[in-house]
Amino acid sequence: MTKKIRIIYISLSGNTKYFVENLSNYIETTKGLVVESLNVKDLKGETFSVDEPFVSILPTYLNGGNGIDNGEKEVLTTRLGDFIASNHNFKFCYGIVGSGNRNFNKQFCLSAEQYTKRFHFPLLDVFELRGTQSDIKRIANAIINRQEEFLKSF
Ligand SMILES: Cc1cc2nc3c(=O)[nH]c(=O)nc-3n(C[C@H](O)[C@H](O)[C@H](O)COP(=O)(O)O)c2cc1C
């Protein structure tokens, strides 16, 4: 049976969706794995049990501030957290990749870091905006290696 990579993510303005499409294409063509992805934005708030290992990708949207003494509140992407929390789905999530914009300084990828504390899975990597080809190669390898490790302990 061909091994699968499942990616559960949220993309509001399309950058993460673009990255996931390129990442999926790279993994399928160079690694011989099948990729299934789900943009939680398309779910209209419903949740269901995943029951299979997956990686998550989360862009950062915070409500202002500087990420040091204020500005830590996640907005707009909370539906991904709700989906991961529902039906014990977090037990199947073996890691998260954060995305954002480095112009936000201390707030760069802060939401993904917050999810690691909330759900106790590791931050695998981060990238900016739509990512680069080198982000895709590096993150593809990080995901595949982490999934292998997770499956051994599963
Ligand atoms: C209102 C708003 C707030 C944002 N806040 C942050 C932030 O706090 N930290 C960060 O790294 N990026 C921040 N960003 C940048 C987004 O995370 C980045 O544009 C990301 O690629 C958006 O992903 P999407 O197009 O898949 O929704 C913000 C963008 C917007 C529009």
TrEMBL record:
Organism: Carnobacterium iners
Pfam family, one: Flavodoxin_NdrI
Lineage: Bacteria, Bacillati, Bacillota, Bacilli, Lactobacillales
Occurrences of domain Flavodoxin-like (ranges): 5-154
Protein's recorded name: Protein involved in ribonucleotide reduction
Gene3D superfamilies (alphabetical): 3.40.50.360
Top-level taxon of origin: Bacteria
Molecular-function GO term, any one: oxidoreductase activity, acting on NAD(P)H
